[in-house]
Specification:
Keywords: Cell membrane, Cell projection, Coiled coil, Cytoplasm, DNA-binding, Membrane, Nucleus, Phosphoprotein
Subunit structure: The SWAP complex consists of NPM1, NCL, PARP1 and SWAP70.
Main location: membrane
Strand order of the largest sheet: 4-3-2-1-7-6-5
Order of helices and strands: HHHHHHHHHHEEEEEEEHHH
GO molecular function, one term: DNA binding
Strand content: 5-15%
CATH class of one domain: Mainly Beta
Largest sheet: 7 strands, antiparallel
CATH superfamily of one domain: Pleckstrin-homology domain (PH domain)/Phosphotyrosine-binding domain (PTB)
Protein name: Switch-associated protein 70
CATH architecture of one domain: Roll
Radius of gyration: 67 Å
Shape: flat
CATH topology of one domain: PH-domain like
C-alpha cells in the first residue's frame, strides 16, 4: 500500500498545484472520492476546509485530510487509468504547452503518466537523465529505430549544466519535438508510446492475436490475448472493449508445448488448477515467445517478485541512491580535506611569518656576534702570547713529571705482578686442601661401605650354609623317590610289554577264528544252496552264539564273561604288586 500511495500522490500533486488554492481542496477531494471509490464524508470535508485560520492554507494544510479521509481508505478496486485521467484533466490545461507537437492529447496524457511512474520520490517532481534515457530507449525500440547514444550524451551534458532533470511538461515537449524520433511519423510515435504505456503502467508483459480452443464446443476462435503479471485476459479484438474471459495465473500453473493436431500448428497448453487452455500461435517464433513470457510470469509469481520493469525501476533508484550517497560522502570528505588544507595553509603562513621574524632576529644577533668576535680576537691574541710562554714552562714540568710517573707506574706493575702470583699460590693451596678433604671423605665412605658389605657377606654365608644343609636333605629324599619311581616305571614297562605280547597273541587267535568262520560260512552257504535246490521246503536252523561277543581295546577279539573276569583279576594283581 505504501508504493500505491506514492504513485497516487504524484498525480494528485500535479492536480492540486494546478488548481486555485482557495478551491483546490474541495474540488479535488470530490473528484478523488469518486474515481477511487472511497465513501464521501461531506461533514469532515467542510470541517477541514472552513474559512478560518485552520483551513487548507493554515499549518494543517491539505495533506492531513488527504491521508486520513481518502488515501488510507483506498482498497485498490479502482481504475488507475481513470484516476490518472481525472488528475490530468485538472492540470493539463494550465501546464500543457501550446507549441506544435507530434503528440496528440492522448499521447501527452500517456507520457505524463509514464513520467509519474519514472520520476523521483521528491517534490517538485522531476525525471532524472538516467530515467529519461531509459524511457527514450524504450520508445526507440518500440519504433524499431536505432538508439543514438552520442546524441543523447550531448543532450545530457547540456541538461546537467543547467538543472537536475525535467518536469512532466518539459518531458512532453521533448518527446513532441521529435528530437529523438527523427524520420518517424506521428502514428509510429503514438504506437510506440502506447506500447511503452501498456508495459510500464498497465503491466502488459505481452499481447497479440492467437487462436483459442473452446471448452464446450471445441471450436477454434481468434482472440486478442493480454498477458499481465497474474492474469491472461482475452478479448474479441485489440480495442479491449469486449472481454471474453481470463486465465488466472499463480505459482501452480505451467505451460508446455503440444504437437500439431486437428490441422492446427504451433500449439501450447496452459495448465491451471481448475482448467487447461489449448492455444495456437501464428508461427513458431510467436509460440516460443508466449511460452517463455508465461513461464517467466509464473516464476515471478512463485518467487513473489514484482514485474520486471518495476523491479528494474527499483534497482535503478537504489543504484542512484547509492551513487548519490557515495557522492555526498565524497563531497563531505572533499570538504573536510579542503578545510584541513585551508587550516594547513593558515598554519604554514603562520610558520612562514614566524620564520621571517626569527631570520630577522638571527641577522641582528649575527651582526652583534661578529662585532663581539672582533673584540674578542684582539683580546685573545694578547692572552695567547702569554699562554704560549706559560705552556712552554708547563711542558718542561710535564716532561719531568712524566718521567717520574713512568718510574712509578713501572713499580706499580711489578707489585701487581707479585700480587697476582701470590693470589695464584693461595688459590693452589686452597684447592689442594679441598682435594685432600674430598679424598679423606671418600676413603671414610669406602671403609663404611666395605664394613657393611663384609657384614652382609657374613650374613649371606650363614644363610647359604643353612640352605645347603636343607638342600642335601631334600636331595636325598628326592633321590629315594626317584629310585622308587624308576622301579615302578620298570615294572610298568614290563607289564606293558606283557600286555603287548598278549594283545599280539589275541590278534593272531582272532585272525584264525575269523578264517574258520569264513570257511564255515562258505560251507554252510553251499550246503544250504544244495538243500534248497533239492528239497526247496526245508529251512535249516543255524547255530548262534550263546554269549555276546566283547570288543577289547587291543583290537577285535571275542571273549566270554569268565575269560574277561580272569584277565581283569590278573591285571589288578600285577598293578597292586607294582605299587
Amino acid at each position: 500500500m505504501v508504493g500505491l500511495k506514492e504513485e497516487l500522490l504524484k498525480s494528485i500533486w500535479h492536480a492540486f498545484t494546478a488548481l486555485d488554492l482557495d478551491r483546490s481542496g474541495k474540488v479535488l477531494s470530490h473528484n478523488l472520492c469518486t474515481v477511487l471509490n472511497v465513501p464521501h464524508d461531506p461533514v469532515a470535508l467542510e470541517e477541514h476546509f472552513r474559512d478560518d485560520d485552520e483551513g487548507p492554507v493554515s499549518n494543517q494544510g491539505y495533506m492531513p485530510y488527504l491521508n486520513k479521509f481518502i488515501l488510507e481508505k483506498v482498497q485498490g478496486n479502482f481504475d488507475k487509468v481513470e484516476f490518472n485521467r481525472m488528475c490530468w484533466t485538472l492540470c493539463a490545461k494550465k501546464n500543457l504547452s501550446k507549441s506544435p507537437s507530434l503528440l496528440s492529447d492522448e499521447d501527452a496524457f500517456k507520457v505524463w503518466v509514464i513520467f509519474n511512474f519514472l520520476s523521483e520520490d521528491k517534490y517538485p517532481l522531476i525525471i532524472v537523465p538516467e530515467e529519461i534515457e531509459y524511457f527514450l530507449k524504450k520508445l526507440t525500440e518500440a519504433m524499431g529505430a536505432g538508439w543514438q547514444q552520442e546524441q543523447f550524451d550531448h543532450y545530457k551534458v547540456a541538461l546537467n549544466t543547467s538543472r537536475e532533470g525535467l518536469s512532466a511538461w518539459e518531458l512532453i515537449d521533448l518527446i513532441g519535438s521529435g528530437q529523438f524520433s527523427k524520420g518517424m511519423d506521428q502514428q509510429t510515435v503514438s504506437m510506440a508510446i502506447n506500447e511503452v504505456f501498456n508495459e510500464l503502467i498497465l503491466d502488459v508483459l505481452k499481447q497479440g492475436y492467437m487462436l483459442k480452443k473452446g471448452h464446450k464446443r471445441k471450436n477454434w476462435t481468434e482472440r486478442w490475448f493480454v498477458l499481465k503479471p497474474n492474469i491472461i485476459s482475452y478479448y474479441i479484438s485489440e480495442d479491449l472493449k469486449d472481454k471474453k474471459g481470463d486465465i488466472i495465473l499463480d505459482g501452480n500453473c505451467c505451460v508446455e508445448a503440444l504437437p500439431d493436431k486437428d490441422g492446427k500448428k504451433c500449439l501450447f497448453l496452459i495448465k491451471c488448477l481448475d482448467k487447461s487452455f489449448e492455444i495456437s500461435a501464428s508461427d513458431k517464433k510467436k509460440k516460443q515467445e508466449w511460452i517463455q513470457a508465461i513461464q517467466t510470469t509464473v516464476s515471478l509469481l512463485r518467487a513473489g517478485s514484482p514485474p520486471p520493469h518495476k523491479e528494474a525501476r527499483q534497482k535503478r533508484k537504489e543504484l542512484r541512491q547509492k551513487l548519490l550517497a557515495e557522492q555526498e560522502e565524497l563531497e563531505r570528505q572533499m570538504k573536510e580535506l579542503q578545510a584541513a588544507n585551508e587550516n594547513k595553509q593558515k598554519e604554514l603562513e603562520t610558520v612562514r611569518k614566524q620564520l621571517e621574524a626569527a631570520a630577522a632576529r638571527a641577522a641582528e644577533e649575527e651582526k652583534k656576534r661578529l662585532q663581539t668576535q672582533v673584540e674578542l680576537q684582539d683580546r685573545f691574541s694578547l692572552e695567547l702570547e702569554r699562554e704560549k710562554m706559560v705552556r712552554q714552562k708547563m711542558e718542561e714540568q710535564v716532561a719531568q713529571k712524566s718521567s717520574e710517573l713512568e718510574q712509578y707506574l713501572q713499580r706499580v706493575r711489578e707489585l701487581e705482578e707479585m700480587y697476582k702470583q701470590l693470589q695464584e699460590a693461595l688459590e693452589d693451596e686452597k684447592q689442594a686442601r679441598q682435594d685432600e678433604e674430598t679424598v679423606r671423605k671418600l676413603q671414610a665412605r669406602l671403609l663404611e661401605e666395605e664394613s657393611a658389605k663384609r657384614a652382609e657377606l657374613e650374613k649371606w654365608h650363614l644363610e647359604q650354609q643353612h640352605t645347603i644343609q636343607m638342600t642335601e636333605a631334600e636331595k636325598q629324599e628326592l633321590e629315594n623317590q626317584r629310585m622308587i619311581k624308576e622301579q615302578a616305571l620298570q615294572v610298568a614297562m614290563q607289564q606293558l610289554e606283557q600286555l603287548q605280547l598278549e594283545r599280539k597273541e589275541a590278534l593272531e587267535q582272532y585272525e584264525e577264528v575269523k578264517k574258520k568262520l569264513e570257511m564255515a560260512a562258505s560251507n554252510t552257504k553251499s550246503w544250504k544252496d544244495k538243500v534248497a535246490h533239492h528239497e526247496g521246503l526245508i529251512r535249516l536252523i543255524e547255530p548262534g552264539s550263546k554269549n555276546p561277543h566283547l570288543i577289547t581295546n587291543w583290537g577285535p577279539a571275542a571273549f566270554t564273561e569268565a575269560e574277561l573276569e580272569e584277565r581283569q583279576k590278573s591285571w589288578k594283581g600285577k598293578k597292586a604288586a607294582s605299587e
